[in-house]
Amino acid sequence: MKMEDVSLSSMDNSKMEGFAQDILSDLVEDACLGLCFEVHRAVKQGYFFLDDTDQESMKDFEIVDQPGVDIFGQVYNQWKNKECVCPNCSRSIAASRFAPHLEKCLGMGRNSSRIASRRIASGNNTNKSESDQEDNDDVNDNDWSYGAEKKAKKRKSDKVFLHSLKQPVPLNPNSPRRSKSMKHKND
Amino acid sequence: MRAAINQKLIEMGERERLKELLRAKLIECGWRDQLKALCKEVIKEKGIENVTVEDLVAGVTPKGRALVPDSVKKELLQRIRAFLSQHST
């Protein structure tokens, strides 16, 4: 099919401008139609009005900008000086000391099991731990400060050193790792 | 001859690129949100159950054309003119 071989350069500028405007107008119309189709689908599928909230709920969740209060309107150091009653020993403990106290009191958590095993080990060696149980509880409440932890750590490293001096620990034939590999071999 | 250029525009993918560029610019300048608000009015008028695509198109397109900012129009016209002058022979 042979088309007219007129090049654009012979077309004057106003015509070219008109052509460009037409192309732009087509593109804009495409964009409008695209939007209309999207909106129509959203309306028919029921998700068009989903992000609208009524004015009342908007006011409930507005950002708060007052001093002494966070952006949700809550006072944030309200619980600093409150006291809680421990459900285990029924003592009244300060809020910031409550979690570590509960750890010791209930006998759960990392530190309390370490302390317990240490006490058992030193109980075997020295046989005097029974009477000191209650006092130790209070002393160990301060475990969280750096100084006490240092003392505790040092004692532990001493014990490890002593162990290594005694005799080498033989490989336990019943330890889980060993038996697993043995089992596979026999199969 | 216009048809030939139009064909080139499409075949070379330039029309798609122009469309994407226009879409991005219109979202940036808030045109899309304005038109969505207009659509909401049409919907409230006609009722959710009965609104058709034609309603939306008829109600929104003329204003949509008028609301396109001049800067966006300029930029696109520039690109179109550049393409036309490049591919006019």
TrEMBL record, chain A:
MF term (GO), any: zinc ion binding
Keyword Metal-binding: yes
Zinc fingers typed SGF11-type, residue spans: 84-105
Biased composition regions of type Basic residues, renumbered to the chain: 177-187
Region listing for Disordered, in residue ranges: 116-187
Localization: Nucleus
Top-level lineage group: Eukaryota
A Pfam family reported for this protein in Swiss-Prot or TrEMBL: Sgf11
Keywords assigned by UniProt, alphabetized: Activator, Chromatin regulator, Metal-binding, Nucleus, Transcription, Transcription regulation, Zinc, Zinc-finger
Gene Ontology terms describing biological process: chromatin organization; regulation of transcription by RNA polymerase II
Skewed-composition ranges (Acidic residues): 132-141
GO CC, alphabetical: DUBm complex; SAGA complex
Transmembrane found in the keyword field: no
Domain notes: The long N-terminal helix forms part of the 'assembly lobe' of the SAGA deubiquitination module.
Purpose of the protein: Component of the transcription regulatory histone acetylation (HAT) complex SAGA, a multiprotein complex that activates transcription by remodeling chromatin and mediating histone acetylation and deubiquitination. Within the SAGA complex, participates in a subcomplex that specifically deubiquitinates histone H2B. The SAGA complex is recruited to specific gene promoters by activators, where it is required for transcription.
Subunit relationships: Component of some SAGA transcription coactivator-HAT complexes. Within the SAGA complex, participates to a subcomplex of SAGA called the DUB module (deubiquitination module).
Family under the similarity heading: Belongs to the SGF11 family.
Protein name: Ataxin-7-like protein 3
Name of the encoding gene: atxn7l3b
TrEMBL record, chain B:
Species in which this protein is naturally found: Carassius auratus (Goldfish)
Record flagged with keyword Nucleus: yes
Gene Ontology MF: a single term: transcription coactivator activity
Protein role: Involved in mRNA export coupled transcription activation by association with both the TREX-2 and the SAGA complexes. The transcription regulatory histone acetylation (HAT) complex SAGA is a multiprotein complex that activates transcription by remodeling chromatin and mediating histone acetylation and deubiquitination. Within the SAGA complex, participates in a subcomplex that specifically deubiquitinates histones. The SAGA complex is recruited to specific gene promoters by activators, where it is required for transcription. Involved in mRNA export coupled transcription activation by association with both the TREX-2 and the SAGA complexes. The transcription regulatory histone acetylation (HAT) complex SAGA is a multiprotein complex that activates transcription by remodeling chromatin and mediating histone acetylation and deubiquitination. Within the SAGA complex, participates to a subcomplex that specifically deubiquitinates histones. The SAGA complex is recruited to specific gene promoters by activators, where it is required for transcription.
Keywords: Activator, Chromatin regulator, mRNA transport, Nucleus, Protein transport, Transcription, Transcription regulation, Translocation, Transport
Any one GO biological process: mRNA export from nucleus
Entry superkingdom: Eukaryota
One Gene Ontology cellular component annotation held by this UniProt entry: SAGA complex
InterPro entries in the cross-refs: TF_ENY2, TF_EnY2_sf
Family to which this protein belongs: Belongs to the ENY2 family.
Subunit structure: Component of the nuclear pore complex (NPC)-associated TREX-2 complex (transcription and export complex 2). Component of the SAGA transcription coactivator-HAT complex. Within the SAGA complex, participates to a subcomplex of SAGA called the DUB module (deubiquitination module). Component of the nuclear pore complex (NPC)-associated TREX-2 complex (transcription and export complex 2). Component of the SAGA transcription coactivator-HAT complex. Within the SAGA complex, participates in a subcomplex of SAGA called the DUB module (deubiquitination module).
Annotated localization: Nucleus, Nucleoplasm
Protein name (database record): Transcription and mRNA export factor ENY2
Transcription regulation found in the keyword field: yes
Major subcellular site: nucleus
